[in-house]
Amino acid sequence: MGSTTKANFHWLCKDTWKRSAVNTSWCLLGCAIGDLGTILFFQVSEIPFPVLGIMILAIINGLITSIILETIILMKQNFDFSKAFQTAIGMSFISMIGMEIAMNLTDYFLTGGAILTWWVIPIMLSVGFLTPWPYNYWRLKKFDINCH
Fold first, then answer.
1. Where are the domains of the chain?
2. Which of 16, 25, 58, 78 has a 20 to 30 A CA-CA distance from 121?
3. Does the pLDDT value for residue 9 go beyond 90?
């Protein structure tokens, strides 16, 4: 990555924004399955567990389900399992962590944490999408690296 690459970088490419939005959406889907599923489990089962513990488990499960989903997507694009798994972890883990933290902080600030309501889920998903999207654009534009 020489000075030519740095000089050519800009934030105005509509195609890159679209492509990074698709990548971010796949990541969001994977994260949301594990994250919201964990919160819903504790909410429905009424198992007494600290809110912070539920939120930490939700983040971990969101990361796991996102990695699984991205690995499957990459394998459908003819990656072998090992390469798909390494790519899913290596290229989008920062994005997933940012997404998970943003979603759970949103839940915490709006509901007190680990509570899913009809109105908080769309807000959590929106914040979860918007948080890593610029990073995904930058990574895609600057290095032509994406996970899907």
1. 14-143
2. 16
3. no
